[in-house]
Write a structure and sequence with these properties.
The chain is globular. The protein has a seven-stranded mixed sheet. Strands 10-2-1-14-20 form a five-stranded parallel sheet, covered by helices on one side. It has three domains: 163 residues, FAD/NAD(P)-binding domain, CATH 3.50.50.60; 97 residues, no CATH class; 99 residues, Polyamine Oxidase, Chain A, domain 2. 34% of the residues lie in helices and 25% in strands. By secondary structure, it is α/β, with parallel strands linked by helices. Flavin-adenine dinucleotide (FAD) binds next to helix 1, strand 19 and helix 14.
């Protein structure tokens, strides 16, 4: 069987490896000159390269870990259980929190009991959520996450201090406009299932170096023909039951099988250009995108209290001490990455103004920052970072077989049950290959 995979992000890389592993002759066509898709870094005149967005994954991301093992890639940080520093803007003394090596959900006892500024009875309220999730409520897609948490009796302060920072980062949507089904999934899988599930893993910077070359080597070893700088213009039915793929320059080629490992809108456009798309793909292409903005600050000394710091109720959200994580200094400067999920005004704000505002907030939140000198800053914005998981969006995510015979859909936005993450992308690639092989 000759198979083509269109798109060289994590979904495409995974699908190509699985198809090749099952004996298909595979070509992977990627529009850009590198692999990794949204997991990428860009050149920076001062810092060398910066990631377009800080990436994090959790111990529960088992399929991603299996792929990374296959590529021979290690994260810079690999915890055994959740450990992080929390800085509450009202209580500037940082708290270092660690989950306990206890069976779930008791592993979270020390985290919740030491979390700053939680209302009384927080442990009981968290237990309430755990028990609701054990009953496997399901059918929550139409409900906003905020309404679901309030319905479970969660006090407002517990929601804004504890649930919101985790859920907004994982789902990339504010709680009042996020599907409760996805939020419940994140809480269940990432926080409550085991002490290992919530353990943080942080890739080494930069993401292109981290993924591109290892993925090329793994694909080469698997016998996949890699064609970079190959933009596909249309995918349609060919002679017999074959799939016709037209490249940008107008060259046609036919394959027995195809995986479209692209975001929903380009996938829909390629099928329309090839003659027909499907209602399922058209509906998915209508889901809006949600942006992520990162502000990279290079200073003359470290100022963050931990490798990974969470700042509830602050525009800073999550802060990463890249120099500590990578164990390296760049030209003597320290690198902090501030990751802003579900970004609003930050997407359009002029770079100099946004950097200045974020640096001021850092100086107000972290005492050592007041003595530090900002040497360089850089803002990276990804307007199409993920799909917007609004209430009702789970029902709009298509499965791998929702294109037409011989063509499978993949991508972190497809129906994996996961938020649009690296784990979702890998799972979708596996599901697409399995669908075609079945
Ligand atoms: C700023 C930011 C921060 C993020 N943070 C996290 C995080 O902390 N943790 C996490 O798990 N996930 C995170 N994500 C999400 C994660 O990066 C994505 O969900 C995942 O990488 C998507 O992989 P994919 O293969 O589905 O799609 P993509 O990575 O979008 O890959 C699609 C590929 O298709 C190619 N392509 C497009 N059109 C064509 C065409 N016509 N012909 C050929 N090729 C084409 C593109 O060039 C691209 O390489 C983040 C994303 C961003 C942007």
């Amino acid at each position: 069987m000759r198979a083509v995979v269109v798109g060289g992000g994590l979904a495409g890389i995974t699908a190509a490896l699985d198809l090749a592993g099952s004996g298909c002759q595979v070509a992977l066509l990627e529009r850009s000159g590198q692999l990794g898709g949204l997991c990428r870094s860009v050149p920076d005149p001062v810092a060398g390269r910066v990631d377009t967005g800080q990436h994090v994954y959790l111990g529960c991301c088992t399929e991603l870990e299996a792929l990374l093992d296959r590529l021979g890639v290690e994260p810079a940080l690999r915890q055994d259980r959740l450990e992080l520093t929390v800085v509450d803007p009202g209580h500037p003394r940082p708290r270092r929190l660690s989950a306990a090596p206890l069976p779930a959900p008791f592993h979270l006892l020390p985290v919740v009991s030491r979390w700053p500024n939680l209302p009384r009875g927080a442990l009981l309220h968290v237990a309430q959520v755990a028990s609701a999730l054990r009953e496997g409520p399901g059918g929550l897609d139409a409900l906003p996450a905020l309404g679901w948490l309030r319905g479970l009796g969660q006090p407002e302060r517990l929601i804004s201090q504890l649930w919101e920072p985790f859920l907004v980062a994982a789902c990339n949507a504010p709680l009042d406009r996020c599907s409760a089904e996805l939020a419940a999934f994140v809480v269940r899988e990432g926080l409550l299932s085991s002490s290992r599930a919530g353990a943080l893993r942080v890739p080494g910077t930069d993401l292109t170096r981290w993924l591109d070359l290892p993925a090329r080597r793994a694909l080469e070893r698997a016998g996949v023909e890699l064609r970079l700088d190959s933009r596909v213009a249309s995918v349609g039915s060919g002679p017999g039951s074959r799939v016709r793929v037209t490249r940008g320059a107008g060259e046609d080629e036919t394959f027995d099988l195809a995986v479209l490992a692209l975001p929903a809108r380009p996938a829909h456009r390629l099928l329309l250009a090839g003659g027909r798309s499907t209602p399922a793909l058209e509906a998915a292409a209508g889901i809006p995108d949600s942006p992520i903005v990162n502000v990279h600050l290079f200073t003359d000394r470290p100022f963050l209290p931990g490798a990974v710091t969470l700042i509830p109720r602050s525009p800073l959200q999550w802060a990463f001490d890249r120099s500590r994580l990578d164990d390296q200094l760049r030209d003597g400067s320290w690198h902090a990455a501030i990751s802003i999920s579900a970004a609003g005004e930050e997407v359009r704000a002029p770079e100099a103004r946004l950097s200045a505002e974020i640096w001021q907030l850092c100086q107000a939140s972290f005492p050592p920052a007041a003595r530090a000198r900002l040497i360089h800053s850089r803002v990276t914005r990804e307007a199409h970072a993920t799909f917007w998981p609004h209430p009702g969006s789970a029902a709009l995510r298509p499965g791998p077989g929702d294109a037409f015979p011989g063509v499978a859909l993949a991508g972190s936005w497809t129906r994996t049950g996961w938020p649009a993450t690296m784990e979702s992308a890998v799972r979708s690639g596996r599901a697409a290959a399995a669908h075609l092989l079945a």
